[in-house]
Design brief:
heterodimer; A: 94 residues; alpha+beta; Ubiquitin-like (UB roll); 3-stranded antiparallel sheet; B: 280 residues; mainly alpha; Ferritin
Chain lengths: 94, 280
C-alpha cells in the first residue's frame, strides 16, 4: 500500500528557537496523515516541538551531474571563510 | 452412556475452599473491592487493547502505519501498567501489575468485550479504535475531576495520549469510509462487527454505582448521548451509515468473555508462565 502513497519530506524543530531540520521522509495518502506519520516515526522520543511535512515532489533539487559547476568554484576561495581574524578569548558563542 | 464417577470427598473439600473471585457473577462485596474492580476494568481495557494493537506489529499495511499502531499500543500498555499496579496496591495481597496481567485467567479479566475483538482487517481495527478511544477520551475528561486522587492524576496524564488516539482513529475512519468502494465496504463491515459492543460501555452495575456515588468515577450514561453524536459526526464525514442497533452483548465487566480473549491471553501469558524467572 505504501508504495501507492506519495512521499513527504519531514522537518523537525527540536526546540524553540532552532530551525527545522530535515530528518527523513514518510509515505502518506495526504498531508494530514503525513503529519501523523511523521510524528509517529520521527518524534517518538521527544525529538521535537514542531513538525513540517513537504511533498517530496515539490522539492526542487540540484542535479548531481552538475555538481562541478555548481559547487567546485567555491572550493578555492578561502578568503570567503572568516578565518583571518583573531577572535579575543572573551568573545563567546562564535 | 457411561455415568460420571462419584465426586471424591477430597475434591469436594478443594471446591469448598475455592475463592469466590473468578466465578461467574462473583459479588463485589466491599467499598474497596469496587475500587479494585474499577481499576481492573480500566487497566484490562488498556492492556487487552494494547495487546491487540501490538499484534499488528510487522503486519500493518505500511511501515508508517505499523509504527503508528505500535505507538498506540505502547500508550495503552503504559496506562495498563499504572492502573494494574494501583489495582494490586488496592487489593493489598502482594500482586503487582505484572502478576495481574500475566497470572490471571479469562474469567478474572474485567475488560469490555469491544477491546478483545480480533483485529480483522485494518478497517475493523480502526472501527474498534474509533468506538473505544472516543469513549475512553470522554471518560478521561470527566475522570480528571475524580475525588480519587490516583484516578484524577492518571486521567490528566492519559488524556493527552487518548486525545491523539481519538483524532487518529477519526481521521482514518473518514479516509476509509470516504475512500474507495472497497475501503468503504470494509469500514462499514468493521463498524457492523463492533457496534453491538457499544451498550456495554455505558452499563452501570452495582460496583460502578458505588464509585459514582463517591465521586470517584463518572457516570458513563451522562455522556452516552454526546458519544453517539460524536460518532455520528465522524460517520457523517466518512459518508458512512451508522449500523442499526443490534442486540447488545454484555458481560465483559463481570468476566463473561468471548472465546477470543482466551486465545489472546494464551499468546500474551505464555512466556512469563512458562519461564517465571525470565528477565530482559
Amino acid at each position: 500500500m505504501s508504495s501507492d502513497w506519495p512521499l513527504w519530506e519531514v522537518f523537525v524543530r527540536s526546540k524553540g528557537g532552532l530551525s527545522h531540520r530535515h530528518v527523513g521522509s514518510v509515505h502518506a495518502p495526504d498531508a494530514q496523515l503525513a503529519l501523523r506519520h511523521a510524528r509517529d516515526t520521527y518524534t517518538r522520543r521527544m525529538e521535537g516541538v514542531s513538525l513540517w511535512v513537504v511533498p517530496s515532489k515539490e522539492i526542487i533539487a540540484s542535479v548531481p551531474d552538475e555538481a562541478g559547476p555548481m559547487f567546485e568554484p567555491a572550493a578555492d576561495k578561502i578568503y570567503r571563510h572568516p578565518t583571518f581574524y583573531d577572535i579575543p578569548d572573551e568573545v563567546k558563542h562564535i | 452412556m457411561p455415568s460420571l464417577p462419584p465426586i471424591r470427598p477430597e475434591d469436594e473439600a478443594v471446591a469448598q475452599r475455592a475463592r469466590l473471585t473468578g466465578v461467574f457473577d462473583a459479588p463485589a462485596e466491599q467499598a474497596d473491592s469496587a475500587r479494585f474492580d474499577y481499576l481492573l476494568r480500566l487497566g484490562d481495557d488498556a492492556l487487552i487493547l494494547g495487546q491487540r494493537l501490538g499484534e499488528w506489529c510487522g503486519h500493518a499495511p505500511a511501515l508508517e502505519v505499523d509504527l503508528s499502531l505500535a505507538n498506540l499500543a505502547l500508550d495503552l500498555i503504559g496506562q495498563a501498567t499504572h492502573l494494574l499496579n494501583e489495582a494490586g496496591e488496592c487489593e493489598g495481597e502482594g500482586r503487582d501489575g505484572d502478576a495481574l496481567a500475566f497470572h490471571r485467567d479469562v474469567l478474572d479479566f474485567r475488560n469490555c468485550l469491544l477491546v478483545e475483538q480480533p483485529n480483522g482487517d485494518f478497517a475493523r481495527t480502526i472501527a474498534r479504535h474509533l468506538l473505544y478511544s472516543t469513549w475512553q477520551h470522554m471518560l478521561l475528561e470527566r475522570l480528571t475531576g475524580s475525588t480519587d486522587r490516583f484516578l484524577a492524576e492518571f486521567a490528566a496524564k492519559a488524556i493527552k495520549e487518548i486525545a491523539y488516539h481519538r483524532e487518529l482513529a477519526a481521521e482514518w475512519s473518514v479516509r476509509l469510509g470516504d475512500g474507495t468502494e472497497e475501503s468503504a465496504r470494509r469500514m462499514a463491515d468493521g463498524l457492523d462487527w463492533c457496534w453491538r459492543f457499544i451498550p456495554e460501555l455505558f452499563e452501570v452495575d452495582e460496583s460502578l454505582e458505588a464509585l459514582i456515588g463517591r465521586g470517584s468515577a463518572p457516570d458513563p450514561r451522562q455522556f452516552e448521548e454526546a458519544y453517539r453524536s460524536s460518532i455520528a459526526t465522524v460517520l457523517g464525514e466518512a459518508k458512512l451509515q451508522a449500523p442499526a442497533d443490534q442486540r447488545p452483548i454484555l458481560g465483559g465487566r463481570r468476566g463473561h468473555h468471548s472465546e477470543h480473549l482466551g486465545h489472546l491471553l494464551a499468546a500474551m501469558q505464555f512466556l512469563p508462565r512458562t519461564y517465571p524467572q525470565a528477565r530482559w
